[in-house]
Structure formats: structure tokens, C-alpha cells
Amino acid sequence: MAGAEIRTSTKTVRTRSTPRDLLDPETGEVVGATVIHTIEERDEEHFVKVFAEGVRAAFDLTKTGARVFNTVLAEYQAAKMTGGYADSLTLFFFDDGLNGRAIDMSEKSFQRGLKELLAKGFLAPKAPNQFWVNPALFFKGDRVTFAREYRIKNRTTVEHSATGTLGNSGTS
Question: What backbone torsions phi and psi does residue 37 show, to the nearest 5 degrees?
Fold first, then answer.
């Protein structure tokens, strides 16, 4: 049976069982999957909010980390671009703001969130107050896909988890 496409006023949902095989990057195993792909169009402001929330959830950012990410993302959006992107940003906290703009956050909170973004690979130090940006997380594109794959736990893995032992070979 071929996949289906359902359109509503706000989104398009496509379903299919993959006729193409997918490669599991961890094991190299060729696997198939059922795909439910939802496409939603948003205005630019809402797109940025959805993007930031998806990144927050995917990387388990703390509330402070998420607030700093949103602030840095706004700085990135305002930065001068070369070839459609900026490879680094200057982030200078002074006068209760970032680069002269009020951000409703203390410097201590900003530094705590910045430290989290550095630890999780969102940014990398370039020079004092200058940071390289991860181009996979900071971009001026017009679309983003967040993919989440669900797998049924291997029965032996579940049994070992219940007994407190590790492994999934079926032997203890």
C-alpha cells in the first residue's frame, strides 16, 4: 500500500512505510521504518520559537540554558551575514544587557547559560567574548526537521534492566 498525504488548513501529514532501507548509524544495520512526516507552515516569528523549543527539548537545556540560547539566537539573527551565515558572534555582557540590549537576565544567569551552551557544543570559544557558532544550530534557513525515532526495547535488555544487570546478549 502506498503512503498517504492528508492536508488540513494548517499542516500536511504524509505517511509511508519506507520502500528505501535506512542505515542505523550505530550498528550499520539496514532497517526499515514507518514514517509519519508532518509539515507545518509558520510565520517567521513563530518559526524561530518552534525551532528554539525543539532545540531546547532535543538537547535537554535547562530553563537558563534555553533563555540564553534564545538570546544568542536573536543576536545571530541580527548579525551581519557573509554568504548567508555568520561563523562567529561577539557576546559582551554590560549594563544589564547583551551587546548593549537589555535581556532581562542577570550577568550571573547569562554566564551560567552560556557555560551550558559551550558544554553542549552550541558555541566554542574564539577569543574573549567571541564565539564560533555551531552551523547546525544557528542558521538563517526557512525550514527545520526534528526527527524522533522510537524503538521497541529488546526483550533481553528489558529483562536485564529489571534485574539490574547490563547487556542484551541473553546471558548473564
Answer: -115, 120
